[in-house]
Amino acid sequence: MNIQELTQEQIRVIGLEVLARELGPTGLVRFLQLYEQGSGDYTRQRPDLLPPLNAAQIAEKIRENRDK
Q1: d(C-alpha 52, C-alpha 31), whole Å
Q2: In angstroms, rounded to a whole number, what is the distance separating the alpha carbons of residues 14 and 47?
Q3: Shortest CA distance to 61 belongs to which of 47, 48, 50?
Q4: Which segments of the chain does DSSP mark as H helices, in order?
Q5: For the segment 20-33, what is each residue's pLDDT rounded down to a tens digit?
């Protein structure tokens, strides 16, 4: 097999087959979860996703979560 002649799709399929064979179905899924690309622009979305907290507020939230 000449790797240089394979298409991107062929390489992807072969790679998934090897991973499934070597890691099993559960291992394959766990591996793929490590490399999920996601979408969006976190830097631009961050202010909408996370409230603006100062260090004291963050420390208080940590203390609250430790008590749970």
Answers
A1: 34
A2: 41
A3: 50
A4: 8-34, 42-49, 55-66
A5: 999 999 999 999 98
- One-letter amino acid at 68 equals K
Token pair recorded at residue 68? 């749970």
In angstroms, the CA 60 to CA 68 distance is 13
Q: Which two tokens stand for residue 37?
A: 């690309």
CA-CA distances (angstroms) from residue 33 to 4, 6, 26, 36, 51?
27, 25, 11, 5, 27
Tokens of 18: 């090897």
Structure-token pair, residue 22: 């070597």
pTM over 0.85: no
Residue 26 tokens read as 């559960």
